[in-house]
Amino acid sequence: MSIEKIVEQALQDGYLTPAMEAEVARICDTAAELSIEEYMALDRLMGSLLTGEVVAVPRKQFINVMEELVLSEAIARAAQIEATSDRVLDVGDIAAYALNRLPPLYATTEEGANYQRQRAKEELHDLISRQVSEAIARNLEQPELDPTRQALGESTGRDVLKRVSTLLEAYAPGYEQKP
């Protein structure tokens, strides 16, 4: 989507979504030089944001507590196995396998995260343990992996958001719920 179309959409709707903001940033970061039209569109957007004609929708900050619980369990279990054998386990693969089979536990505040942790300890500990055990068993059964395989690497929230935004645009063009 072009800057001009994003600005037009923002002016029409009265808000700039995080996805729209990310797309503007991506265009500005990747363009060696912006056209006069693009600069004018950005100027219109900035003016509209300053006057309140367009409001930037804030990003919601949240965490999935299940990730930290599974990762802690996977690290502890992998360390035990690695200490008593010559096997090296891929903790990332183990955690991903288990997380794909467990319910998410999202929280937006520290109080909410503490609640989710406590809930998981009381209600989901056995399920987490079983899924991590299954993930370890599968990891131990795996043949040698393709040497060209690459990890996702370190990503900032903005990088992940860009990737997700790009995927959503490719697979669901024009879909964005309006408030």
Label this structure with key terms.
179 residues; mainly alpha; two-stranded parallel sheet; two-stranded antiparallel sheet; 65% helix; 4% strand
Short description:
65% of the residues lie in helices and 4% in strands. The protein has 179 residues and is mainly alpha-helical. The two termini are 21 Å apart.
Descriptive notes:
- 65% of the residues lie in helices and 4% in strands.
- It has helices at 3-13, 18-30, 36-51, 65-84, 91-99, 110-141, 157-171; strands spanning 15-16, 55-56, 63-64, 106-107.
- Helix 4 crosses helix 5, helix 4 packs parallel to helix 6 (110-141) and helix 5 packs across helix 6.
- It starts with a helix and ends in an 8-residue tail after the last helix.
- 18% of the residues are buried.
- The model has no long low-confidence stretch (mean pLDDT 83).
SSE arrangement:
Blueprint: H1 3-13, E1 15-16, H2 18-30, H3 36-51, E2 55-56, E3 63-64, H4 65-84, H5 91-99, E4 106-107, H6 110-141, H7 157-171
Parallel strand pairs: 1-2
Antiparallel strand pairs: 3-4
* Strand and helix order: HEHHEEHHEHH
Q: What's the average pLDDT?
A: 83
Distance between the termini: 21 Å
Structural class: mainly alpha
Helix percent band: 55-70%
Low-confidence stretches: none
Number of continuous helical runs? 7
Reported for the largest beta sheet, the result is:
2 strands, parallel
Number-wise, the strands total 4
Beta-strand content estimate: under 5%
Strand order of the largest sheet: 1-2
